[in-house]
């Protein structure tokens, strides 16, 4: 029985040898290629990613990558190790060790117009370092073409992608997940699509990215959170339509939770850094006529700024004078209001005294004391 299990693991390691881990390819997408209208702002991008396929027992696949762009060419290198393909019941006693894979990625932006770009390339040129040696896996070799459209929607930026590719972008044969039958021969191909939304949240560090894609076999969703301007945390779920089958053993189309970390190195800016020195280095002969013209323009600009500052100072003084006059007028109105209230109070008091005197006189009058009522 033990020999049968070992034989089964060996065959399964051949069937599930190729590993396509999210966030290990050039660009911010999870498993599909990326292209843009303009060149990448980064000299290179590096990081690592991991996919969790089972909690108990723990089963993960992971890897690392580095990529860069120059003159329209994008080159990437990745290394990864797949998860254990043993059934869950035997996962704790499994002795299976996934082979280490080395992948190369190459693509070229061949067409740009307005907000649309077209790129072709080769993805997942995978070499496996297994017990049989260092071998190329032709099943995962993917030739692709991808079209990208970039749009701005207020504070949000959206890039949409659609493309066609061979190899890993073709449909996965789900029958092979539970049998040891021979793999079908022939070229596999399929379509893929995706979109990435750049939001204004944490805008000072580049904004949070929301990623969604169809990689030819399933739907992947992710979130790219900037920790600083050069570091990002990548989160997501792969093949979310297969989440109800989470308890099945790991295979190429298995659903998983993914987490990764990314570091970028920005290109050297061609602009002079403020405070970097009193003057830029001299790269050629100095043209005195141009220097004189520049100095005259600078002097004119300085005088204009001084005049503007003087005008603003005078306007501020005038505003302060008007404010003082308005405050004095407000105090005058307050004093006038107090005087009116005082006069009103005096008149009310006199009116009250007169009414009391009239009431007393009427009381004496009705009592027949006419002489006293006249006092």
Bin the helical content.
Answer: 25-40%
Looking at CATH, the homologous superfamily of the largest domain is monomeric porin ompg
Largest sheet: 12 strands, antiparallel, barrel
Tell me the number of helical segments per DSSP (H or I, 4 or more residues long): 3
Succession of helices and strands: HEEEEEEEEEEEEEHH
- How many domain units? 2
CATH classification class of the largest domain = Mainly Beta
Q: Would you kindly provide a brief summary of this structure?
A:
This protein has 375 residues and is α+β, with helices and mostly antiparallel strands.
Structure description:
This protein has 375 residues and is of the alpha+beta class. The chain has 2 domains: 2-266, monomeric porin ompg (Porin, Beta Barrel), CATH 2.40.160; 291-375. The protein contains 3 helices and 13 strands; from the N terminus they run H-E-E-E-E-E-E-E-E-E-E-E-E-E-H-H. The protein has helices spanning 2-15, 288-366, 370-373, and strands spanning 42-54, 59-70, 73-81, 100-113, 116-130, 133-137, 142-153, 156-166, 189-198, 209-214, 219-226, 231-238, 256-266. A 12-stranded antiparallel β-barrel has the order 1-2-3-4-5-7-8-9-10-11-12-13. A hairpin with a 2-residue loop joins strand 5 and strand 6. The longest helix is centred in the C-terminal third of the chain and has 79 residues, at 288-366. It is elongated and about 140 Å long. The chain starts with a helix and ends with a helix.
